[in-house]
Amino acid sequence: MDETLAKKRAVRNPKRGKKQPITWNLIKNQKQLIMMSVPLMLYIILFAYVPVWGWTMAFQDYKPAKDFGEQAWVGFKHFKFLFTDDNFLRVLRNTVGMSLINLVLGFVTAIILALLLNEIKKVFWKRTVQTISYLPHFLSWIIVTGIVATSLASDGIINDLLMKLQVIKEPILWLSEGKYFWGIVGGSHVWKEVGWNTIIYLAAIASIDPALYEAAEIDGASRYRKMLHVTLPGIKATIVILLIMSIGHILEAGFEVQYLLGNGLVVDWAETIDIFVLKYGIAQGNYSMATAGGIFKTVVSVTMLLLANWTAKRLGEERLL
Amino acid sequence: MGGKTKSWLRLSTVLLLSLSVVLGGCGSGNGNNAATPEKKDSAEQTTPGTDGNKVEPFEVSVFIGEAGQQPTPDNKIYKKIKDELGASFNFEFLAGDINQKLGVMIAGSDYPDMMTGNTKLTAAGAYIPLEDLIEEHAPNLKKHYEDYWNMMKDPNDGHIYILPNYGVFNGKLNSSWYSGPAFWIQKAVLEEFGYPKVKTLDEYFDLIGKYKEKYPTIDGSPTIGFEILNYDWRNWGLFNAPQHLIGHPNDGGVVVKDGVAEVFANKDYAKQYYQKLNEMNAQGLIDKETFVQNYDQYLAKLSSGTVLGMFDQHWNFQNAENSLITQGKDERTYVGLPLVYDENTKDHYRDRAPLNLNNGFGISVNAKDPVKILKMLDALITEDWQKVLSWGIEGEDYIVNEEGRFMKTQEQRDAFTDGTWKLANKADAFFGFAPKIEGSFSDGNATDAAAQPEEYKAGLKEYDKKFLEAYGFDSYVDFFSEPPENEVAYPAWTIDLVEGSEAKVVNTKLNDLSTKFLPKAILAKPADFESAWSEYTAEIGKINIKAYEDRINEQIQWRITNWSK
Fold first, then answer.
1. Is B289 within 8 Å of A280 when comparing Cβ atoms?
2. What's the CA gap between B539 and A54, in Å, rounded?
3. Is the CB of residue B184 less than 8 Å from the CB of residue B310?
4. Which of A62, A124, B336, B523 is within CB 3.0–4.6 Å of A288 for a Cys-Cys bond?
5. Which pLDDT score is estimated for B324?
6. Architecture of domain B181-352+483-563 in this structure
7. If DSSP codes are grouped into helix, strand and coil, which group holds residue A190?
8. Residue A149 and residue B297: Cβ atoms within 8 Å?
């Protein structure tokens, strides 16, 4: 994949750092390209920029049946409600906490699994492991949380296993303790997504030049050495790009898992921004509050994305923008 | 060669499939169209129902806001309606999401003649006001709704748009089925201790404790004393019991005394209940997992037959009970008990179903001849037609014994549970939403076959017959006191808190606090209960409960002024 991209670049050959002046001639030459990009531009304008107009709702007491002109403008009232609520800091902490756990666990497990899969030489086993590990991705969260809740029940498989192994004497009620909750959410995410997440790394690994492995082998590199010095650097660019994108989603800790697994006993650890906004925004018919929550999340996302991108640039890594 | 055969095969499959879709589409289309013109001649007959006037056939398009199945084209009840009243129905059932469908209908003002009730449609002005038309053209309907007339009026503009389908009662209220809230107990527990009459909470937990001690396991699994379900919106298992224990009906989060509502979550009579639960938990009677389980796990436990009791609404665990019956564990099914704190309090769990507002049919602004439709509905509310719609045709679907009581043979009973049979022989799609008489007809027969006492008894299982005999009851509903007339403003839980208002935010917060602190208090060591409870009430003290109570009280007053007869 990298090769073909590089080739294209060579053909067009724009001078780095120097903008090509836009002339009629250039437009004429590229008119097919411009025509082709029109539908996509329209799509983006229509579905990504026009809806931003809806942000105005956050500054109104929005009522669905009224016209825009009839809405009452209230300034930052809804942001105030959001930020001053007793629960806000708690849900923010939970969101960021679970999100970070998901991020770290997600990356580490996916990369490790990809590296391990890469080492399997028998195609049959490789495919089997891959298929089994990514199948849960296609289950919806409602199913997964059902499985998780059942496995964690007092007579569920987890407690049975730990009791048989003599690790614990009494079954533990995993879902009744706040301190376990983040871990359970992180674990469920890993179980559901690990196989799926490896796919992109496996693709990146496949594009590494085999000559590098041969060279390393001639230099006497062991299997682990090759992993460390050839495979990992080979997919570093992919990892960084994915990391930057994930950091942009830091406030997306998910909603279904916490909503479906949470209960009164762990609510202090389970409630995320999304649940909060659902309860006090959408469920109350208070769309303005929900929009304010959405704006907050978007602003944080864009900021984090730019920050991560800037850091990557400073570190001389591949970046998104 | 192989490749070629394959592609041929694929092509022909695709062709076949598309052909079948096209044909299928044609088929059903024809079916619908053909049903109407065919029977024109028979409809010309004169009938007694219309005072000897000629019956003019007309078609009524109906939107049903629920998923459903088209009746068969030769359905005998619809045929009878067509023959005698001239109306033939053209149903459209909901497919997919109701709000989406309504959005499309409203956007295009594309309404059929009749539509089931929905506040979105009312707000869009899709229904015509009916009160004057009923006064003028529909004497039977007027009589039917007389006592409920003011309640049916839309609170916003005072018009009647929708004819409620349930909640209008007549005569003795026959009921053999209780679907509401109660403390439920396994029949086996009562049987074990010689069918005692259980009235108070203490007696109830006493029985459960004794039974659990005697039988620590049921079918090999540990016995569970008591379950409290509090999952997502199914939160009444934890929240609602206190109001019933002091003898009040289900008003949701408030207790209404003399037209004044108060939140009971932090009151002493609520504390009494949760303290009892706390003690019972210390004795190991309450399921350890009860607050972490989801609804499926709850149903699974109940279905296993190991749960001795719980506070719940019957319909909520109906599936578990059905499963127990299928497994042949009749003794593990449940009896609802209307428990109170002390002997002197009269129980008020069972209530008279309130008027089912915003449900039933309305006539749309697009209906060409609303008077004709209304006259048809007016004819159908008469007792003779109600019998046809509810019981069926005499001799075919039910029999009348010497005492004039309606009964069914086993064959007829079985037919009534057969969905396919019903599509051809019952007008359920229409009748479910149509105005109907509930209770009993003037000849004393129940309006609903399932509520006819003789019919109910005949359908009972051996175990239940024996069980009810021991108590001297006709049905399980007899465990409850006869419901008194409802207060005018009852029930308070149907009051709209108004989207986005402070009352609604407070209500959400209150639920959040209860969900968080009540389990803590119940699971605390008995010595720590006091502090857990005061923490809970202190948190409630911080939110503006008054805003919530004020809204309820304001609406109660509004109902008292406007709904009183």
1. no
2. 36
3. yes
4. A62
5. 93
6. 3-Layer(aba) Sandwich (3.40)
7. helix
8. yes
According to CATH, the topology of domain B44-171+358-439 is D-Maltodextrin-Binding Protein; domain 2 (3.40.190)
Domain ranges of chain B: 44-171+358-439, 181-352+483-563
| Residues 6 or more apart whose Cβ sits within 8 Å of residue B198 | B185, B190, B204, B207, B337, B339
Decide: B502 and B544 in contact? Cβ < 8 Å.
Answer: yes
Stated as kind and residue range, the H or E segment containing B386 is helix B383-390
Q: Can you tell me the distance from the alpha carbon of B515 to that of A270, in angstroms, rounded to the nearest whole number? A: 13
Spatial CB neighbours of B554, under 8 Å, sequence gap ≥ 6: none
Tokens of B434: 């149509």
> Residue B169 belongs to what H/E stretch?
strand B169-170
B contacts of A65 (beta carbons < 8 Å): 123
Helix (H, G, I), strand (E, B) or coil at B347: coil
Given a contact cutoff of 8 angstroms between Cβ atoms, the answer to whether A253 and A141 are in contact is no
Q: Which amino acid, one-letter code, is at B23?
A: L
| C-beta of residue B71 within 8 angstroms of C-beta of residue B427 | yes
Q: What pLDDT is recorded for position A16?
A: 55
Q: Which helix (H) or strand (E) element contains residue B439?
A: strand B438-439
The reply to whether B181-352+483-563 shares the fold of B44-171+358-439 is: yes
What is the distance between the alpha carbons of residues B118 and B127, in angstroms, rounded to a whole number?
A: 10
The whole-angstrom distance between A71's CA and the closest CA on chain B is 15
Q: Looking up tokens 């209530």, which residue turns up?
A: B351
DSSP tag of A169: S
Q: What pLDDT, on a 0 to 100 scale, did the predictor assign at position A21?
A: 80
B interface test, pick of A145, A263, A266, A282 with most B CB neighbours within 10 Å: A263
The per-residue pLDDT for range A56-94, each reduced to its tens digit, is 989 988 876 677 888 889 989 999 988 988 889 999 999
Q: ipTM of this model? A: 0.77
Residues of A in contact with B297 (CB under 8 A): 149-150, 153
List the single best residue of A176, A259, A282 to mutate versus B (max B Cβ within 10 A): A176
At the topology level, CATH places domain A77-141+193-314 in MetI-like fold (1.10.3720)
Whole-angstrom distance between the N-terminal and C-terminal Cα of chain B?
85
HEC per residue, B38-85: HHHHHHCCECHHHCCCECCCEEEEEEECCCCCCCCCCCHHHHHHHHHH
Cβ atoms of A242 and A166 closer than 8 Å: no
Phi and psi (nearest 5°) for B368?
Answer: -70, -40
Backbone angles phi, psi at A304, to 5 degrees: -60, -40
Domain ranges of chain A: 77-141+193-314
- Give the other-Cβ count within 10 Å of A16's Cβ: 5
Alpha-carbon distance of B42 to B65, in angstroms, equals 32
The stretches of chain A forming alpha helices (DSSP H) are: 2-12, 24-29, 31-44, 77-84, 88-119, 123-134, 141-151, 157-164, 178-206, 210-218, 223-226, 232-234, 236-248, 256-261, 267-270, 273-280, 287-314
Residues B117, B360: contact at Cβ < 8 Å?
yes
pLDDT tens-digit map of B104-163: 888 788 899 999 998 878 888 899 999 999 999 999 999 999 888 988 888 778 899 999
Helices and strands (H and E) in chain B: how many: 24, 17
Q: What's residue A50's pLDDT?
A: 92
By CB atoms closer than 10 A (0-12, 13-18, 19+), residue B73 is middle
Tens of pLDDT, residue by residue over B53-109, are 567 899 999 999 988 889 999 999 999 999 999 999 999 999 877 877 887 888 788
Angstrom distance (rounded) from CA A107 to CA A243: 8
